[in-house]
């Protein structure tokens, strides 16, 4: 339950203590999960989870990417062998596009959303107007269960029906809104058009889509404070904004890593990569789950006093697979080439067109010039992709820090 300026003391604990406590939980949860979940038993076949006590050891375990989950679930319906409880022991079962089936356990605040609501200034005893979808997907339940854990009442607004939403807000007088930022702007503008009094709304927790500065500014011009949550149907709350508005704070209850796309290898602090999350969730203990989303870490704790890792927020998608001359080229292939040549510090493939012919250029950061490497890397490029390409060498730190491993710059509309 809420404690002063923070939802609970976990948010302000010493970072080293957090790591120790989380990896102790990891050992317990994944040892139990290995016994009950067939997919975890396969992933941890020769590994005792209790021996994994730090991030370096965690980085040696396999990554399961969201893009694989549809096929994994089809082979072992409904959850691909990743749940540690029987379907009938869950509170809800959702069906997200894909389809991907998402479980919700019976624990209070299963999705860990209450801490994000508290950081957005929601308080016990308030009313929350919840405009996330309730039908089949978990967003509506995710926000509602978090609000209940915080001690708030919820108006289950759902999506659409803008005029009815405006009327409900005017009459019920909720203190805050939860939903997408674009729909909040629509509701506020419709309220103004209708001459409705929506002044009770003073705060919002928004997500599920990008929040550009212009949209935040438009919302706050109506007197509604706007804060973001970064969540997914698989993992619930992963990160959220606080009053500091200085990046997003990683949620308690997960271990987040940023890895090079196509690999499980953590990147250096500040480098853009794919978000990989290990969920310390007894019912659905996802191990190194690759979200497909891109971000980068920020240095140091938040000015608000919360001590967990911070990220810049959502920075695009990591799945950069593309077709060249009718054949797929994937980020994992570029990682394979780099592994073959330890001199490569970082590699980036640019795909372009010469008139109507596709062409590939692999740029590699190498130390001390790396003379003599070009023929060998060129050979590896052809061996891995089954296509010829050009290799160029460049200085360390000269490639863009945008997380791209494959940059497709072809124009097909000219």
Characterization of this structure:
Helix content is 28%, strand content 25%. It is α/β, with parallel strands linked by helices and 414 residues long. The strands form five sheets. It has a nine-stranded mixed sheet, with helices on both faces. Strands 1-13-12-11 form a four-stranded mixed sheet. The chain has a four-stranded mixed sheet with strand order 20-19-18-21, with helices on one face. The radius of gyration is 23 Å and the shape is globular. 41% of the residues are buried. The model has no long low-confidence stretch (mean pLDDT 93).
Please render the helix and strand layout as text.
Layout lengths: L14 H22 L1 H6 L11 H4 L5 E2 H10 L16 E5 L3 E5 L9 H6 L7 E4 L8 H12 L2 E4 L5 H11 L3 E4 L1 H14 L8 E4 L6 H8 L4 E8 L3 E5 L7 E3 L3 E6 L13 E7 L9 E7 L1 E2 L11 E2 L10 E3 L2 E3 L1 H10 L3 E11 L2 E10 L6 H13 L4 E5 L11 E3 L6
Parallel strand pairs: 1-13, 4-5, 4-6, 6-7, 7-8, 18-21, 19-20
Antiparallel strand pairs: 2-3, 8-9, 9-10, 10-15, 11-12, 12-13, 14-15, 16-17, 18-19
**How would a textbook summarize the main sheet?**
9 strands, mixed
Question: Radius of gyration, Cα only, in angstroms?
Answer: 23 Å
Helix content: 25-40%
- Give the N-terminus to C-terminus distance in angstroms: 58 Å
Strand content: 15-25%
Number of strands: 21
Number of distinct helices: 11
What form results from the Cα inertia axes?
A: globular
- Please, what is the average pLDDT? 93
Low-confidence runs: none
Output the strand order for the largest sheet.
Answer: 5-4-6-7-8-9-10-15-14
> What structural class do you assign from the helix and strand content?
alpha/beta
């Amino acid at each position: 339950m809420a404690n002063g300026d923070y939802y609970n003391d976990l948010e302000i604990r010493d970072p080293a203590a957090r790591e120790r406590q989380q990896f102790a939980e990891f050992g317990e949860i994944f040892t139990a999960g290995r016994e009950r979940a067939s997919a975890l038993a396969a992933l941890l076949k020769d590994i005792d989870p209790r021996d994994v006590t730090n991030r370096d050891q965690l980085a040696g375990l396999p990554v399961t990417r969201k893009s694989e989950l549809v096929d994994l679930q089809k082979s072992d319906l409904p959850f691909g062998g990743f749940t540690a409880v029987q379907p009938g022991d869950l509170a809800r079962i959702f069906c997200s596009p894909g389809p991907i089936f998402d479980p919700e356990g019976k624990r209070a605040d299963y999705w860990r959303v209450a801490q994000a609501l508290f950081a957005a200034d929601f308080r016990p005893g308030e009313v929350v107007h919840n405009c996330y979808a309730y039908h089949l997907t978990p967003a509506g339940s995710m926000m509602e269960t978090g609000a209940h854990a915080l001690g708030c009442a919820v108006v289950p607004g759902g999506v659409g029906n803008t005029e009815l939403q405006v009327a409900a807000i005017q009459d019920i007088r909720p203190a805050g809104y939860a939903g997408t930022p674009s729909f909040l702007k629509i509701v506020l503008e419709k309220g103004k058009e209708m001459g409705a009094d929506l002044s009770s709304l003073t705060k919002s927790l928004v997500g599920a889509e990008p929040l550009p500065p212009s949209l935040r500014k438009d919302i706050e011009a109506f007197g509604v404070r706007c804060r973001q949550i970064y969540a997914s149907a698989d993992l619930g709350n992963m990160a959220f904004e606080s009053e500091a508005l200085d990046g997003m704070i990683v949620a308690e209850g997960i271990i987040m890593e940023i890895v090079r796309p196509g690999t499980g290898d953590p990147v250096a602090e500040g480098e853009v990569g794919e978000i990989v999350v290990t969920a310390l969730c007894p019912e659905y203990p996802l191990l190194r789950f690759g979200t497909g989303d891109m971000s980068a870490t920020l240095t140091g704790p938040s000015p608000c006093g919360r001590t967990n890792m911070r990220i810049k927020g959502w920075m695009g998608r990591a799945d950069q697979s593309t077709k060249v001359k009718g054949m797929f080229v994937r980020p994992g292939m570029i990682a394979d080439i780099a592994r073959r040549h330890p001199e490569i510090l970082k590699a980036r493939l640019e795909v372009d067109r010469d008139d109507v012919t596709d062409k590939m250029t692999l740029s590699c950061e190498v130390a001390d010039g790396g003379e003599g490497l070009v023929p060998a890397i060129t050979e590896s490029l052809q061996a891995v992709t089954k296509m010829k390409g050009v290799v160029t060498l460049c200085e360390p730190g000269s490639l863009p820090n945008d997380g791209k491993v494959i940059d497709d710059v072809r124009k097909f509309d000219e």
